[in-house]
Design brief:
The complex is a heterodimer. Chain A is an all-alpha fold. Chain A is built from 8 helices and no strands. Chain A is flat, with a radius of gyration of 24 Å. The N and C termini of chain A lie far apart (80 Å). Chain B contains 11 helices and 12 strands. The longest helix of chain B is centred in the middle third of the chain and has 21 residues. The chains are: A mainly alpha, B alpha+beta. Chains A and B meet through helix 7 and helix 8 of A and helix 4, helix 8, helix 9, helix 10 and strand 12 of B.
């Protein structure tokens, strides 16, 4: 089957079909290399998810800053590699962040609301259940 | 019951509206009608039930002379007459004047009298439970006694927890009401601009009443009570996500139902031991039955001191 016929058969453009054939079945264009090791990336993804759960979610810029902070603690070799990869800086750019999010489908961008610190601190299981227990007592009486 | 502040003026000024205009306009603007004094902002107190019933509205508007809200309106015949602002709201509503337009203990006492009258007319033989946030303005022994005489048990929610425990502070109630009131204000201010008159307090009352009848519907209120787990009582309605905010680690597994079943003996002891801190009743970390005799005694003692 020619590339043209393949593209027509699967309703894709010629360029997409050619990319698919040449790259051994990869549909999307590969982004730049991840730079961080898979274990580091998995830890970073977990860190982001946990922080979002406890009300300390990070924006994309904060994520870049955290990565830069982490890289500044690494060996000079890795720092040099990071500078080469991130255009002379230790801070990954927005492109890297969007590729990172693409690589981790468990992460998602959210529009957030805010909550006062006092309210967040008071929202504890024992306070909530104490309140429901009081209600159940009054309903019973 | 909960209060909400309505910023009519800010809603009109800061709202993002779309208008239709010709191509090539660089900075289209909309003219705002003047806001008369007292129409810029107010506080509205709503009280709703799990059956979807909304108690008469209680609104506090800005006014130097405290008392009932009355305005002078010009009738179609050109004669001026006095009209109560409450006439633009639902039956039995009260509009009170105060500067700044917010609650205080004296205003809360008026609300208690209004609500106890409503409570007596609604299943008179049955006891009712009223849940409010633990704001200090709600700790008025006079108002609480009026409620108690009408067989209304009053619970103050733990401080700063209304966003989780209160039906009115939910996306199904105030979450629907606030956008509606903003859109009503915008709609009415366009009306005022076209009629070349200013946005006055009666227009503000119309916005409040219209938005309340649209947003606080029976089904929305039933959903709100269900979502916070107050009726039917279900602590599991509170999500783990809500309990994990500002925690050291996410709350992974906690059986709220089981915990609630085990707590009543300790809560019964709490009811008899009101906690007074810095000369006022503290509701930090626990709900308080304000109409319990021990709590009322403590409040009266503090008021006398």
């Amino acid at each position: 089957m020619t590339t043209k016929a393949f593209a027509a058969r699967f309703r894709m453009s010629y360029a997409q079909a050619r990319y698919f054939v040449l790259n051994g079945g990869v549909l999307r264009r590969r982004g730049p290399s991840p730079f961080f090791k898979p274990e580091e990336e998995a830890l970073l993804a977990k860190f982001l998810a946990t922080n979002a759960t406890i009300g300390r979610g990070l924006t994309q810029d904060s994520l870049s800053r955290i990565c830069a902070l982490y890289l500044s603690e690494l060996s000079s070799d890795r720092q040099a590699a990071a500078r080469a990869r991130f255009n002379g800086s230790l801070t990954p750019g927005r492109g890297w962040v969007s590729c990172f999010l693409d690589r981790h489908p468990v992460l998602k961008n959210y529009r957030v609301c805010t909550i006062e610190e006092g309210r967040a601190r008071n929202s504890r299981p024992e306070v909530v259940t104490r309140s429901y227990a009081l209600l159940s007592l009054l309903y019973r009486d | 019951m909960d209060e909400t502040h309505i910023h009519a003026r800010s809603s009109a000024i800061s709202s993002r509206m779309g208008i239709v205009g010709g191509v090539g306009m660089s900075k289209p603007e909309v003219i705002l009608p003047p806001f008369s004094s007292g129409a810029g902002a107010c506080t509205a107190a709503f009280c709703v039930s799990a059956a979807g019933v909304v108690a008469p509205h209680f609104v506090v508007v800005d006014g130097q002379a405290p008392g009932h809200g009355i305005v002078t309106v010009t009738g179609p015949d050109g004669f001026k007459k006095d009209a109560a602002l409450a006439s633009w709201l639902n039956d039995g509503a009260i509009v009170s004047r105060r500067s700044p337009p917010g609650m205080e203990k004296a205003v809360f006492d008026v609300w208690c009298e209004m609500f106890s009258k409503f409570a007596r007319s609604y299943y008179p033989e049955e006891a009712k439970i009223l849940s409010l946030d633990g704001a200090k303005v709600h700790l008025s022994p006079k108002g609480l006694l009026v409620l108690l005489r009408s067989n209304v048990n009053f619970i103050a929610e733990p401080s700063r927890m209304s966003h989780i425990l209160q039906a009115l502070d939910n996306s199904s109630s105030f979450g629907r009401y606030q956008p509606k009131v903003r859109s009503r204000v915008r709609e009415i201010f366009f009306e005022c601009r076209d009629a070349a008159r200013s946005f006055k307090t009666p227009e503000l009352m119309r916005s409040i009443a219209g938005a309340a009848s649209e947003a606080l519907t029976e089904s929305a209120l039933r959903t709100a009570f269900l979502r916070v787990g107050i009726w039917p009582l279900g602590p599991s309605a509170v999500s783990r996500e809500e309990l994990s905010e500002e925690a050291e680690a996410p709350v992974a597994s906690v059986d709220l139902e089981l915990l609630t079943r085990r707590l009543p003996p300790s809560v019964r002891r709490d009811i008899k031991c009101p906690r007074v801190v810095n000369g006022t009743l503290s509701t930090a970390g626990r709900g308080t039955a304000l109409t319990a005799p021990e709590v009322l005694d403590a409040l009266e003692g503090e008021a006398a001191a």
